[in-house]
Amino acid sequence: MKKILIVLFFFSYGLKAQISINKEYSSTALSFLNIIEDAQSYSLGGGVSIEPRDNNICQNISKSVFMDKKLSFSFSYRAWMRNFIKDMNFTHLSSVYLIDDYSAFVFSYTHLNLGKIDKYSNTKAYLGNIEAYESLLNISYSRKISQSSSLGLSVKYISSNIDPIIKKSALAADISFYYTSRLFNGKLSGGFLLSNIGGKVNYEGDKYFLPLTSKFAISYKYILDDNNVLNISSEVSKLMISNEDKYYSDDGVRNNMIVGIQKDETVLESFLKSMNENTLSSFSLGAEYIYGSTIFGRCGIKTYNNEDKLILLGLGIEKYSVNIDLAYSFYINKRSQVNDNLFVTLSFNI
């Protein structure tokens, strides 16, 4: 059988979320929910606070009310772990519709193709194969609460099909905030996102949390002159799931077992405990140079728990209301099958 079983466990059970598996961080279900959806945000390490464009809205829904176009669309494609499985890929579709000057709707669909699984009987007879995937349907609403700030709410339907007998679905929500204001010869922006708020997912009797994650970000757009602009952004994220797992034997003695399976702890309890724990976290710093509102050069660095360091590179072109963005990444201190790949986003507005 292909190596797909390892990949399925990685994505559906969230095995350490792209961090070395010997570290004691919580595992979660449906970890694909934390994949960055567009090339611009990816090449900068995150997009919670960067200026809203057609392609980066899903990083922070509350930014959508600051768009200057009535209707926009975006499509992203990412070759995913191609050194591992050839037919694996990630696609994302989104659309923003401005209702008026104060409110907007956002619709998006995300699909992670996990490749084909070869099926065998108990006698090892070949039974064919199935297409494994995980998907997300997102409907969001944002509204200005002042001329410089806004709030956003997203409702998400999540589907996981990794086996005919292990089909799962779940509901989750995101809440977000965005602020932007002129400062000196530029614009200061900040954002907050709490994503994947929802219950647990049951896999054959074991209950896993969704990857509840908080993100704080700040960015500054400095206008050098009419043709040259420099954007600097920074983002911090933290997995809001406790590392501590609770199992009790028949005599009531507590035992620590497999990380991530927490049978008697509520989402709220785990959230509150995670605030004082060293859970999975990341820090990113990115820079974007814009020439003539047409050519975009990007670079960034992202660290996971101050250990694994990821270098990010990006390029963008905008012409006639059409944007093409590319991103590429690689680790500088380890080899990763996950992040050595190319990311492409195409977007346009009306």
Short description:
With 350 residues, this protein is mainly beta. It is built from 3 helices and 18 strands.
> Which secondary-structure class do the elements indicate?
mainly beta
How many domains, in number, for the residues?
Answer: 1
> Mean pLDDT, as a whole number?
81
- Distinct helical segment count: 3
Cα gyration radius (Å) = 21 Å
Measured between the Cα atoms of the first and last residue, the distance is 47 Å
Q: How would you sum up the major sheet? A: 14 strands, antiparallel, barrel
Element pattern in H and E: HHEEEEEEEEEEEEEHEEEEE
Can you give the helix content as a percent range?
Answer: under 10%
Give the low-confidence spans: 1-25, 245-262
Spatial strand arrangement across the major sheet: 1-2-3-4-5-6-7-10-11-14-15-16-17-18
Percentage of β-strand residues? over 45%
Give the CA-based shape.
Answer: globular
Report the strand count. 18
